[in-house]
Write a structure and sequence with these properties.
Radius of gyration: 18 Å
Number of strands: 10
Strand content: over 45%
Structural class: mainly beta
Helix content: under 10%
Length: 196
């Protein structure tokens, strides 16, 4: 799987907004859910107006697990947020985009969600890319002057193109450049946030 340097893309997007960043107008964050799943992740958020922020986060997983389990991927997820009270405090809604690449298989995920059969990941490896968009809702709680905890959930659509293989060790393709449309949860976050 090719691994583009999405961190460079993430920081390039953030740096375009960075000159506007002032005290209490920028934040750095980590998603504790992704941390628990061994995904390296980083988020940056910038205040654009009294009730508007631009949030961008990315995550990366390059680990190989026992028994040839694969959950390698990278993802970038920019989002525009509207805060009901003031930026970075209270309730917000957002419009997010997402995209990345993945190489997944031999995962015991025996469930189906809105037309997508995740049980196929047990005996088949999928390698491809995806892109999509969604709507989010969240809330940020102040812990201290510079610290917040933030919960967010998103639902949306993803378009993916992929190749599939019968097992982790085998090289014979089952599908080549296949298409799948996914609709369902696209974001789940419990962020620990440091506000500058």
């Amino acid at each position: 799987m090719k691994r583009p340097t999405f961190f460079a893309i993430l920081f390039a997007a953030a740096s375009m907004l960075a000159p506007r960043a002032e005290a209490q107008n920028a934040a750095i964050k980590t998603n504790l859910i992704y941390d628990a799943l061994a995904n390296i992740n980083l988020g940056l958020e910038f205040k654009m107006a009294p009730r508007w922020t631009f949030d961008v986060n990315g995550n990366f997983n390059c680990w190989s697990f026992s028994d040839h389990k694969e959950w390698k991927h990278w993802m970038a997820q920019p989002e525009f947020r509207y805060w009901f009270c003031e930026a970075m405090h209270g309730n917000f809604i957002g419009l997010e985009l997402h995209g990345g690449q993945y190489n997944m298989g031999k995962l015991n995920t025996n469930f189906m969600l809105l037309g997508t059969d995740f049980a196929k990941l047990k005996d088949t490896r999928y390698q491809g890319w995806y892109a999509g968009a969604g709507l989010t809702y969240g809330h940020a709680w102040m812990l201290a002057k510079h610290w917040n905890i933030e919960a967010e959930i998103g639902i949306g659509w993803s378009y993916t193109r992929f190749d599939s293989f019968p097992c982790m060790e085998c090289g014979n393709k089952l599908q080549d450049n296949a298409v799948h449309n996914y609709f369902g949860p696209t974001k789940a976050a419990l962020n620990l946030v440091y506000i500058f």
